[in-house]
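Morning, I've got a small favour to ask if you have a moment. I owe you a coffee for this, so here goes:
>
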Amino acid sequence: MKAITLILLLLVSNLILSQNTNTRSIPEGQIPEVYKGLKQNEYLKTRLQKTETALSSANQLINEQDKALSVSKSLLTAKDEAMGTVIEISKQDKIAAEERENQLNIDISYLKNQLEVSRKEFEIKQRKRFWNGVKIGGVSVAVLGTAGLIWLKNR
C-alpha cells in the first residue's frame, strides 16, 4: 500500500513539475491580438449576460402575458355563459309573455261573451217591462175608458 501511495506521489509531482508555466511561449507579435481577443471575450461575456437577463425578462413577460391571456379567456368564457343565461332568461320571459297574452286574450273573449249575454238578458228584461207596461196601460185605458163612459152616461 505504501508503494502505491509513493508511486502516485511521484507521478503527481512529475506532472506538476513538467507543466509549462512560461508565458513567453506566445510570440511578442501576437500579444496585442491575444489582448484584443481577451477584451473581446470579456465584451462577449458582458453581452451574453445582458442577453440572458433580457431573455429572462422576456420569459417573465411572456409568462405574465400567458396568465393575462388565460384570465381573459376565462372571463370570455364566463361572459359567454352569462350571455347564454341572459338569452335563456329572455326566451323564458318571451314564452311567459306569450302565455300571459294568450290568457289575456282568453279573458277578453270571455268578457266579450259575458257582455253579450248581459245585453241579451237586458233586452229580454226590457221587452218584459215593455209588455208589462203595455198590459198595465191597456188595463188602465180600459178602466179609464169604462169609467169615462159610465160618467158620460150618468151625466
In short: The chain has a mean pLDDT of 85. The CA atoms of residues 50 and 56 lie 10 Å apart. The helical segments are 2-18, 31-153. DSSP finds two helices and no strands in the chain.
